[in-house]
Amino acid sequence: MRQLIDTLAKERQLSREQYRELLQTRDACVYAYAEEKARETARARFGNKIFIRGLIEFSNICKNDCYYCGLRRSNTACNRYRLTEEEILDCCKQGYALGFRTFVLQGGEDGGYSDDRICLLVSKIKKSYPDCAVTLSIGERSREVYQRFYDAGADRYLLRHETADEEHYAKLHPAELNLAERKRCLYDLKEIGFQVGSGFLVGSPYQTIEHLCSDLLFLQTLRPQMIGIGPFIPHEDTPFKSFPAGDINLTLYLVSLLRLAHPDALIPATTAVGSLVENGREQAILHGANVVMPNLSPSKNRGDYSLYNNKLSDGAEAAESRAILEARLSAIGYCTVTDRGDYKVY
Ligand code: SAM
User: Fold this and answer.
1) Fewer CB within 10 Å, N or C, the chain?
2) How far is the CA of 70 from the centre of ligand 1 (A)?
3) DSSP codes joined into one string, 59-92
């Protein structure tokens, strides 16, 4: 098994059979070996530097109905909000002062924010902060619209594929959403020139090891610049409320395998990892992650961006508490940097 991990570190890819073998084991020594190799790999490239992104969750209104997500349109218990342009620009202003040089605008697929409005917003942010990167994470659009976002100045786009198995995709989403379209979006984004982020849920309902192998193989083909994975965490007002959360150790092991397969990638220690266990963020970094995305949204709205129960948005997760984040990272030998943190090949 160690040999397989060495092969992954060297070749940056494995076959389905090899991934299957690595995922079937629950041997703590194998997990520990992957962690050690992944940490070394990240250290060799990024040193002890962790890139930070200011996350602005600007709308929780969504036309989609994904079965796992608390923002799904059928959730009538969700207190909906949409930030104004002024509020978003204010978040950027605060974020810039705190040392953020990437702003991530994430939201549901909210028709109230038309494509024109998004373009205008992006160009305003880029004009005010020309030294900053703007990342969009607002779901599926046509290629033409993605091109317009890019021309307006957006640098990066996050769109998780969620699961790379078609049948599994259909168990997590209503019929109007499909994997082929999700993939089409990802390839279009990449061709247009965005730095692209993808990723998947770990431990989502009905997930099998074969599905996870498909996820790892899909990422091997897509080769995105950013890879975000996190455990599925149930939300009480969704059809998946009774399913268990994803396993933290499996999630961390997958972070390590992804780091080995994608040594230069930007891999965040996601909020879901931090929400599931106390020191999840630090653990993810020790397993090879190199990005954290603290929350820059106005505090009055944070509780309403409820993707899953007990989602963190305070303490080290809050952008204004950068000092807390810094102290927690320093305790494990890392520090943040004031840098756009673009993808580069080392
Ligand atoms: N609407 C955009 C999209 O579809 O990419 C961005 C927002 S979406 C809410 C952001 C991510 O939240 C999704 O890609 C999904 O993986 C994650 N998410 C949603 N519900 C979740 C849950 N119950 N547990 C963990 N992650 C969840």
Assistant:
1) C
2) 9
3) E---S---TT-TT-TT-TTS---B--HHHHHHHH
